[in-house]
Write a structure and sequence with these properties.
By secondary structure, the protein is mainly alpha-helical. Helices cover 54% and strands 8% of the residues. The longest helix is centred in the last third of the chain and has 23 residues.
């Protein structure tokens, strides 16, 4: 299925959990627990997802076409119950659009003199 710019824009703004899940899947397929570990490590523990939050988000994201379940396991030795996920081309487009949106917001705030440092 081909998606156009309007399809991508309709997904924005992304909930932070959704954006972080997409980031976790940009470079490799991962199973749920590995996604949780990646997000926690990348955010320095600032974002900790419960399994319930993760799997509800994954179910929604699969329905949106942002990610898909991978049928082939990376290793024959892996736990058969694990489900692996991969970002889709549409998911990559949406993640890039969200990154542009966030970059623009930060640029506008800096132009107004707002910085993350305390006064």
């Amino acid at each position: 299925m081909r998606h156009d710019r309007a399809d991508v824009e309709a997904e924005l703004p992304l909930p932070p959990v959704t954006f972080h899940i997409l980031l976790a899947l940009v470079d490799q397929e991962r199973h749920g627990y590995a996604i949780i570990q990646d997000v926690e490590a990348r955010t320095g523990g600032e974002l900790r997802m419960s399994a319930g939050t993760l799997y509800r988000s994954i179910q929604r994201m699969v329905g949106q076409g942002l990610i898909r379940e991978v049928s082939k396991k990376p290793s024959l030795l892996d736990d058969e119950r694990r489900r692996y996920y991969r970002i889709t081309p549409f998911g990559t487009d949406v993640a890039r659009a969200e990154m542009r949106r966030l970059t623009d917001i930060v640029r506008l705030a800096r132009a107004r003199g707002l910085t993350p440092e305390s006064p």
